[in-house]
Amino acid sequence: MSSSEDLSASPPNLVTPVTEVPRWRALLTNQLTVLVFILIALMLFLGNHNSRFFTSSEMSFLLADFSGLVLVAVAETFVIISGGIDLSVGSVMAVAGVLAARAMQPLINSHTNEAVVLLLGTGVALLVGMVAGAINATLIVGFNVVPFVATLAMWYGGQGLALVWTGGQPYGLNPGAQTWSAATIPGLPFLSWLSLIVIGITVVLGLVLRKARYGRYTFAIGSNNFAARAAGIGVKKYVGSFYVLSGALAGLTGMFFDIRLGSGAPTTGQTTTLIAIAAVVIGGTSLFGGSGTFLGTVLGAAILIVVQDGAIFVNVSANWVPVVVASVVAVASIIQSGRLRLRRRS
Amino acid sequence: MTDTPILELRHVSKSYGSVRALTDVSFQAFAGQIIGLVGDNGAGKSSMIKTISGVYTPDEGEILVDGTPRHWKSPHDAIEAGIETLYQDSGLAPDLTIGSNIFLGRELRRRNVLGRLGFLDQRSMETQAMEELEKVGISIGAAKRTVSELSGGQRQAVAIGRAAMWAKHVIILDEPTNHLGARQSIEVLKVMKAARDRGLCVLFISHTLPHVLEVTDRIIVLRLGRIVRDAPTSEFTVESLLGTITGLNQ
Questions:
Q1: Is residue B94 packed enough to be buried (19+ CB in 10 Å), middle (13-18) or exposed (0-12)?
Q2: Of A227, B22, B42, B129, which residue is 20 to 30 A from B110 by alpha carbon distance?
Q3: pLDDT of residue B191
Q4: B27 phi, psi to nearest 5 deg
Q5: d(CA A295, CA A30)
Q6: CA B130, B126, B96: angle at the middle one, nearest 5?
Q7: Residue A272: beta bridge partners?
Q8: Among B46, B80, B104, which would you mutate to test the A interface (most chain A Cβ atoms within 10 Å of its Cβ)?
Q9: Residues A137-187: pLDDT tens digits?
Q10: DSSP of A186-217
């Protein structure tokens, strides 16, 4: 299009067309492609090293560990895309798990129906998580405390409370809970009902982030807080809700561990905050807010769990596992930044 | 109809702590007018438009839209009253697509159960964004691209298009020709004239005095938070306008 055409064109063309990115480059620089490739390569490597890796008992173990991470990772995705961060999720998991166990214990001893007990526990865990999230939200939105500091305080305080309320010992539950957690879906021996519920919640959250107004505003607020406000969006209300959502999902994950371990332990979630944030970052979400993907986080979480659980198959001793996981986080971050550079050049 | 000002400020004042940004500002603006708002840095232009657009609430005074006093608490209220604002440099969310930006804050939902649950009709938003922008005189190619992929001039076009497309009464443009080349600036002025011809009232804030003189019907000059002159554009030249802005012409 020549410039003289531009001038006389009606309507005026203020926006000139950009050249399309070549398809091979678009595919190569697509973060999801890269992450899927890494995940498949890792699994093939581990399977090649040890044939036990692809058994359904190992796969169910992987899926269970994945389920214990993915909800908080997705919650963290909402918070980080909105331009914030939630460091408290690990502690909130512990507090919610402990209080839920405490609420369930007397009922178990009085032989109440197991499903009722678990539902009550889930309700308590959800409520505790939401209260913690609401405290974060109040500090951040009401008192303008930086999210990093507000949630760091909650993280530290939560750890303390989890110890105070348990005396350091886990609250034991009926081993029935554990049996229930191991129950798998007929025909799919690697998928437990518990994991299926978690995956269901995850899918809904993913759709909300990508397709619903709530997700749209999450991106808008992180991308340009002022623009969101000027467009008439109740930014404070939404920002507060991200922390309540994060607390709620941390609470549910706390309950997940109660069921899985058969007890509410104060040590639950000690490393979860860091791993969840790592999953989000590996998934390509910007810590500056405004951009990120749900699938990226899910793949990031899957990669971290496979590395963490798979290390044992290549004879890495338990103490070295965190170092291996950390290295994977570092390498994945380098690949992410390289991808961004390649994309920017086009 | 033309007797009632579409927008009126009566004795509006605004302070931030000890800094007085606006002092006793009153003016009337009518439909089908382009009004230039000029003044040196710190004269109160930004405070004035942010007060009109609901980002700030005035300490004293009243804002009337079409003769009715309005007391808004947020930008949302001003938008509902039919006032659209293009903010200098910061009106778009760069990570969202053009279509999403155009519909930011008034998303279209799907026409089914999912829509009631808050799920969006992205395709309709993108098609409508293109059509509506063309109506106000801006062609954008494809609404699927994110704003961060656009150049400064292109972003400005999207922002102006959004304001022009949604405005029912008043459209406020804060430095819309900033960062634009000569040809793109002319296109922006055309969009403003088209908006006036559609019966809107345009408030045009700019440092580029030749543009202001070319396109406006009336000019309001602000200095140190007060209106020092409010007169038809024909009474000004670049020199006299400059003199009024700096205070040398008194």
A1: middle
A2: A227
A3: 86
A4: -160, 165
A5: 12
A6: 110
A7: none
A8: B104
A9: 999 999 999 999 999 999 999 999 999 988 888 887 766 666 777 777 887
A10: TTEEEEEHHHHHHHHHHHHHHHHHHHBHHHHH
Which of B9-13, B29-33, B142-146 has the weakest average pLDDT?
B142-146
Whether the pLDDT of residue B157 is over 90: the answer is: no
Q: Does B129 touch chain A (CB under 8 A)?
A: no
Neighbouring C-alpha atoms within 13 Å toward the C-beta of A137: 21
Contact predicate A305/A66, CB 8 Å:
yes
Q: Round to whole Å and give the CA distance between B222 and B215.
A: 19
Instruction: Give the per-residue pLDDT at A19.
Output: 56
B118–A213: do the CB atoms touch at under 8 Å?
yes
Considering only CB atoms, B118 lies closest to which of A212, A219, A231, namely A212
B46 touches chain A (CB under 8 A): no
- Per the CB < 8 A criterion, the answer to whether B51 and B179 are in contact is no
Low-confidence ranges of chain A (pLDDT < 70): 1-29, 174-178, 339-346
Q: What is the DSSP letter of B219?
A: E
Look at the alpha carbons of A231, B112, A293, A343 in this order and tell me if their dihedral is positive or negative: negative
- Calpha distance A271→A224 (Å, rounded): 31
With an 8 Å Cβ cutoff, are A220 and B157 in contact? Answer: no
Output the pLDDT for position A182. 72
Q: How many interface pairs between A and B have CB atoms less than 8 angstroms apart?
A: 116
Asked if B146 contacts B95 with a C-beta cutoff of 8 angstroms, the reply is yes
Give which of A302, A284, A279 is closest to A75, Cα–Cα: A279
Q: Identify residue A337 by its one-letter amino acid code.
A: S
Residue for token digits 């918070």? A79
B132 neighbourhood in chain A, CB within 8 Å: none
Determine what percent of chain B is predicted with pLDDT higher than 90.
Answer: 56
Are the C-beta atoms of residues A12 and B137 closer than 8 Å to each other? yes
d(CA A155, CA A132): 10
pTM of the complete model beyond 0.80: yes
Who contacts A15 (Cβ-Cβ below 8 Å, separation ≥6)?
B138, B139, B140, B141, B150, B154, B157, B158
- ipTM rounded to 2 decimals: 0.84
CATH code of the region B7-94+168-246: 3.40.50.300
- Residues A296 and A38: their CA atoms lie apart, in Å, by 12
pLDDT score recorded for residue B30: 94
Which residues fall within 8 angstroms of residue B38, CB to CB, at 6 or more apart? B45, B205, B206, B207, B209, B212, B219, B220, B221, B222, B241, B245
The DSSP letter of residue B94 is: T
